[in-house]
Amino acid sequence: GQQLNQSPQSMFIQEGEDVSMNCTSSSIFNTWLWYKQDPGEGPVLLIALYKAGELTSNGRLTAQFGITRKDSFLNISASIPSDVGIYFCAGRPNSGYALNFGKGTSLLVTP
Amino acid sequence: GAVVSQHPSRVICKSGTSVKIECRSLDFQATTMFWYRQFPKQSLMLMATSNEGSKATYEQGVEKDKFLINHASLTLSTLTVTSAHPEDSSFYICSASSLSGGQETQYFGPGTRLLVL
Description:
heterodimer, A: mainly beta, 11 strands, about 50% strand, B: mainly beta, seven-stranded mixed sheet, four-stranded antiparallel sheet, globular
């Protein structure tokens, strides 16, 4: 499958700041998923989006499924040190269940 | 809910031996499971899609005789790395597909670190 275009590649911010990252694809997806991966562990699902335009929150995290169905963003508000990790977007096309992944956004938060 | 386990979490083996990794969905049934490989500082690379009761579908460039996949039940898929070599050393992660209300979500296991000496 295609590799999604995820940006930024890395972010270095201070505790308390808000963070935004996004993902775009060249084709339409019917599902967008956002995961966080800590070193040496598997990705953990943060938010799942199933409808174009859908805006979903999970605590300090908010994600949206773009209207064009070719993009999604994830916002983290009031970041804390435990937000450190790599965030991956993943999209599922209409056919099959296999996901296409972004390259990840590495987030570092300083106290 | 939606917990996926992997065993072992890490394994060290000699070159030429085979290693089996198990992936289990603990609280849901997964008709489809996926096997990924991840190199340091890179994204996940899909190796194969495992369907319960049928042959796995391998991605281009992945040797099916090298990476044997068995999905014997709705909660268990296994990946066997046969005749492992140092270049097979990697982080292997499985995911299980959960279908609820017509919406499909994938949940990942914690990964297995394989080191081939």
